[in-house]
């Protein structure tokens, strides 16, 4: 321990570190982890001890895929409610997606507007992705320099007219521009031609919706992305992978040195097409939740490292937009507060440990965004933690969630893993379902 400035020591018999889970005491100074010490280290006089017993101390989760929709569509969510829900769910860092807010994050002015709105409302540390749309090629470098963590683009319609998709030529041009300044392009990968030729039937049947968003749309888009990224030596990231068919080509691209990373989401990894009731559009998202057999391949992709991260893709809306018609209902699943227990429930069933969960939900997303102070319980990082009772269960009651709208595909599910408390830079920001006031900071790339 370095000494005088350590005011807080946290300890647990199960601390999840990059080298495995073990009993440890964590000395905190000035909001950072000063040292990770043996469990029975003497606590310096003047320091406060928080002992979590056998509850598991995880690194605070990093969720790099959240649609906060603020300003502009704050009836859908907002920085106050989103970050409060995140804090209650063990998340200490969030990156906001560039679309569904008005304005979208496609210029530096728009970024500044969003930062101003977010600053007083953020319960956790919050950063921003920029957007790459056909009209803003000249804004990409200024946005990069202003601190966005990378750029999101679509290859098929996004669902909102202010955020148009890129065609293949625009994709290649944007990718080259972004690679030119060492940036990261993150991609909603569904090919528009495959979507256009798929059967489009409206109504309450989930099978019809699933048929309208075939795996081939994802597979083809990802194939094209790999080709562009390889040719341009560009860094790309596949958002919300749903099609397990794409895993072999992604694994091959990684082996060949293509700079590609991949995320999947709790809904693809814990919910299945077979269980979606007719008209239950709280399960609608794009790409869609697929069959149980496909889900097994996604878990294999996580186990062998082809899939790097698990992030929420929390994309809420008001209840009235979730009409029972799958074709017209808003697509997006609300899950910010539930990602950790949802994934832990499935992971433990499949023989994975909380070390795996911490890697997928904290270390890897922090690495994706270059957040070197986040993502691990080790000296020098921010003292951000989630304290989890992994063997306790609870049943999801949407009315008890902090999301702005009480619509979620997880309603009524019994999940393992109760978040007992959440710590941000050495301060307890959530405990036993109550969340303190906003003390999050705004993050910029390379801070
Ligand atoms: Zn999304």
Automatic annotation (TrEMBL):
Gene3D superfamilies: Metal-dependent hydrolases. Its EC number is 3.5.2.5. Pathway: Nitrogen metabolism; (S)-allantoin degradation; allantoate from (S)-allantoin: step 1/1. PANTHER family: ALLANTOINASE. NCBIfam families: allantoinase. Belongs to the metallo-dependent hydrolases superfamily. Allantoinase family. Homotetramer. This is allantoinase.
